[in-house]
Amino acid sequence: MRPNLSRWLASLALAGAIAMPALAHHSFAMFEMDKNVAVKGTVVEYKWMNPHVHVTVKVDAAPGIDPALVGLWDFECGGGTVIMGRQGWTKSTLKAGEPIDAVIHPLRDGNKGGALFYINKPDGTRLYTDIARPKAE
Amino acid sequence: MAFALKNLVRASLRAATVATALSMVLPAQAAAPAASFDPHNISGFWELPYDGRNIPQANLQPSVTPAVIAEHRAKDANSRRWCYFIGMPMAMDSPRPIDIRQSAHEVLVNFETRATPRHIYLDRKDNMLLDDYDFTSTGDSVGHWEGNTFVVTTVGIDGDKGLTLLPGGGFRTTDSKLTERYRLANNGNALIVTFTWEDPKVFKTPHTYAYRYTRAPKFYEVQTTLDCDPLDKERAEFFANPPSAK
Amino acid sequence: MPAHASLTNATIARRSPPAVRRFSRWLAIPITVAAGALGTVAPASAAQPAGGIPDLTGAWVRIDATGSGSFDNLAAGFPQASLTPAYAEQREREKKAGPRTGAWDPNKKYQNGEAYVVTAGTCGFPGGIEPNSAAFHIVQDRDEVVIVRENPGLGRNIYMDGRPHPDLKRFVPTATGHSVGRYEGGALVFETVGLTPGGVPAGGYKTPETVLVERYSLSPDGNRLTMRYTFTDPKIYTKPHTFEILAERGLPRQLAFEWYCDAADPKQSQGVAPPKQE
C-alpha cells in the first residue's frame, strides 16, 4: 500500500520542525551569523572537545578597547575537533594565558558569547573554525 | 648476458604488473577456471560465525594482576553504558558482517556497530603519528602484501577510548602495537585474520589469536546500524545493578 | 517509467543479456590497465564506463568557494526548492511551531552561566546525505563504493554490482537510504531511495519515496570534486530540486580523524554559555 497524502503529511509532522543547518550539532540561531565582531583578549580556557570546541576569553579594560567588550566570554566554535582539525587546529593551538585576536558572530541578546569565526595568528594568517569563508568584500 | 637478464627481469616485472592490474579488475565471473578467486582481493562483507574464534590464553606480565584486569573490566562496562565507540580490536568481533573494501590507496573496514571505520593505508610504509594528533579508538594502520597475506600494523590506539580488554586476556594501552595478517581461504569464501598484540608492559610474549570470517551471501544488504542510546533510561537501569535471580 | 529509472545499474542489468554484461566488464580492463600505466591510480572497479573511472578514493573536504560569511549561509546560493502547495503549507505550519525542548528561546532572558542550547545529544549516528564541514572519505571497490564521514553519520554504501533497490515496503528507511550506482561519462552516478523524512538544503524535504540522484565528477587535475544532487518527488517538488557542493582533495596519505563523543559529559550537550562575570 502506498501512503496517501494525509499519511504523508503526518509523517512530516512526526519528523519534527524544519531541519537545523546540517553543518552544526545544534542551531546557531542565537548568534547574529551575518555580523562579525573583532575581540582581542586573553585565553582563559581552551576546551578541545566535541561536539563543539569552546574558548573562554577575558577582555580587560584598556585604551582603545570598547567598554562593551570588557568581561569574560564564551566562544563556541562551529565545529568539533575533526572539523577544526581539517582547518589546521590542534589540541594545543591555544593555551591559557596567551593573547587571542578573534572575530566572532555575537549573541543576539548582547550577552558575552559568540560563535568563533576565525582567529588572526601572529604571522598574519587566519585559522577558521569551519569551512565557511568571509563574503567577498 | 647481463643485458638479456635485465630484459628478462623487466619483462617479468611488466608481466607481473599487468597480472596484478588484471587481478584487481577481473570480476569473479570472468576469471579463468584455474584461478577461482583472487588471493589479493579481500573486499566483501565478512561474517564472524560462532565457531570463528581461535583464542589461546595470553601470557601476561606479573604486573597485570586481577585487580588491574578488574579496573579495565569496570572501564569497559562504563564504555558500554555510555555507548563509547568500540574501537580496536573488538570492532572486528562484530555480530554483523564487516565491510572490507580495497582500493588502490587504502583498505577501508566499515562496521554496522557503534564503531568508527578503519582506514588501512597502502600508499605509505610507516605509521604516522603526529605530536598533536588525537589518538583514536582504531589507531593508525598501514598495510602491505607479503605473498598472499595482507599484513597490517596498527599503533596509536588510544588506551582511554573504547573497549580495552583483549580476547584471551590482557588489555591494550596507547603503547600497544597490533599486527594483523589477512589471508583468504576456502576458495575465497573464508578470511582468516590473526591478531598479534605486542606491549611489554602487558604481555610477556606477543599475544596471538585468530578469527575465521565467512563471506556473506551475494547481494548482502547493509542493515540499519546497531546504534546505542546512552540517554535511554531503561537501558541505563539495565546496566546500573547486577542482575538478580528474582 | 520514471526518468530516474534509466540511471540504475539494476535497469541496465535487466536490459542487457549476460554476454553483453560480461563483455562490458572485460572492456574495463584495458582502460584500467592503461590508466595505471599512465601513472594515475585506477580503482579496482569492473564497471563499464565510457568515460573511464574517476579516481575518487581518498579524503575530501567541502569548500566554501564563493564566501558565505558563516556556515549558516553555505546553502544560501543554492536554487530554492520549488514546492507543491500541500508541502509549502506544511512548511508554514512548522515555522509557526514554538522552539523545541532544549532549543534556544528568543523570548527568554538568559543568565550568565546558563547554556543557550541543551541538546539531547546521544552521540548517535544520524548523519545525512550531503557532507558537512568534516572531511569525508571515499573508497572505490568493484562491487561497492563506500563513503564515510569523520564526524557522526552513517556510512554510505553504494552498490555497484547491478542489484536493484529493495521493495520500499520491506525496507527500513535510514539517513542514507539505499543506493545503487555506476560510472557514466567519467563520473560516479548513483541513485538513492529509502531516506528518512527530513530537511534538504535550500528549502527541500525528503521522504522514503523521494528519489535522489547524485553525480560526482572530478576536475581535470583530479583535486576538486563536484557533487550534484537532484531530488525528485512529485508530492514535494513541482520540479526536480538540484544543487551542487564542491570539495577539495585532502593531502595524500593524511590521517583520518575521529570524532570521539562522550555522552557522559554534560558539557557535550550544551551550547554557548556566557560565563558568570567577575
How would you describe what is shown here?
Chain A contains two helices and six strands. Chain A is mainly beta. Chain A has a five-stranded mixed beta barrel. The longest helix of chain A is centred in the N-terminal third of the chain and has 10 residues. Chain A starts with a helix and ends in a 9-residue tail after the last strand. The N terminus of chain A is likely disordered. Chain B has 246 residues and is an alpha+beta fold. Chain B has three helices and ten strands, in the order αββαββββββββα. In chain B, strand 9 and strand 10 form a beta hairpin. Helices cover 14% and strands 24% of the residues of chain C. In chain C, a hairpin with a 2-residue loop joins strand 5 and strand 6.
Mean pLDDT of chain B: 86
Low-confidence stretches of chain A: 1-23
**Structural shape of chain B:** globular
Largest interface: A-C, 66 and 69 residues
Q: What is the helix/strand order of chain A?
A: HEEEHEEE
Alpha carbon gyration radius of chain A:
19 Å
Question: How would you classify the helix and strand content of chain B by structural class?
Answer: alpha+beta
* Helical coverage of chain B, percent range: 10-25%
- Indicate the radius of gyration of chain B in whole angstroms: 21 Å
List the uncertain runs of chain B: 1-34
Order of helices and strands of chain B: HEEHEEEEEEEEH
Structural class of chain A: mainly beta
- Would you tell me the overall average pLDDT of chain A? 83
Distance between the terminal alpha carbons of chain A, to the nearest Å?
Answer: 55 Å
Précis, in short:
With 137 residues, chain A is mainly beta.
List the helices and strands and how they pair.
The complex is a heterotrimer of chains A (137), B (246) and C (278).
Chain A (H helix, E strand, L loop, with lengths): L4 H10 L22 E11 L6 E6 L11 E7 L3 H6 L12 E8 L6 E8 L5 E3 L9
Parallel strand pairs in A: 3-5
Antiparallel strand pairs in A: 1-2, 1-4, 2-3, 4-5, 5-6
Chain B lengths: L1 H24 L18 E4 L5 E2 L11 H16 L16 E5 L3 E5 L7 E4 L18 E7 L2 E7 L21 E9 L4 E9 L8 E9 L17 H8 L6
Parallel strand pairs in B: 5-6
Antiparallel strand pairs in B: 1-3, 1-10, 2-10, 3-4, 4-5, 6-7, 7-8, 8-9, 9-10
Chain C lengths: L8 H7 L2 H20 L20 E5 L22 H12 L39 E5 L3 E6 L6 E4 L18 E7 L2 E7 L4 E3 L3 E3 L4 E8 L5 E9 L8 E9 L29
Parallel strand pairs in C: 4-5
Antiparallel strand pairs in C: 1-2, 1-11, 2-3, 3-4, 5-6, 6-9, 7-8, 9-10, 10-11
